[in-house]
Amino acid sequence: MQDDTADAPEAEAPEVSQGADHRPDHGEAMRIAEALLFAAAAPLSAEELSGRLPEGADVEKILQDLTELYALRGVNLVRVAGKWTFRTASDLSFVLARDVVEQRKLSRAAMETLAIIAYHQPVTRAEIEEIRGVATSKGTIDTLLETGWIRLRGRRKAPGRPVTYGTTAGFLEHFGLDAIEDLPGLEELKGAGFIEGRVPSDFSVPVPSDADALREDEDPLEDDLLQPLDMHQTEAGEE
Q1: Are 122 and 218 in contact (CB under 8 A)?
Q2: pTM over the 0.70 mark
Q3: For 85-94, 101-110, 158-167, which range has the lowest pLDDT when averaged over its residues?
């Protein structure tokens, strides 16, 4: 009797895809990112997180999901100065008030000077005084430099080559801003009560920029710079 199975074709083995797109477990990647953000001493950028997460992890999706996950919790994931960090929910700040170390408040002169630098940067000390209408003491500038909120940018291409000042990433982090462009505009300032009374028709709030690149009217700082050249100005008249 002839064996009909002799000529039967062999069963083909199932094909195994060699080019399958391997992606890490999204939930596990979220847990890792969450741990990194909690343990970090300073805000982390998306690039810094990407270097610590499993290869192929969708960092933008992870940050979006974590932001939504913590939106209604006691801490929120927020973006400041282009980086990500956990912060106490703003409506719960009163709960922690008793544990906050009381710090010396900035003087009115320092606050005015900081605001002028933030909105008008790069700006020199003489330009700050022209806007304020009074002299600005060396101590005021030194205080702001010590806080890490302002920095020396360069020197103005003008007689005396005065130092120009600008804000830092520390300024953005302290005031909870993602970018300098998030500073309030004219209408927001009026609504908050910072600008009262009738405003002149030609009055405007400048659009701030903290770009690192020097402008055409700025020269780089010298390597041996220790003190701004304009520090000899009088401290009298500060308010």
Answers
A1: yes
A2: no
A3: 101-110
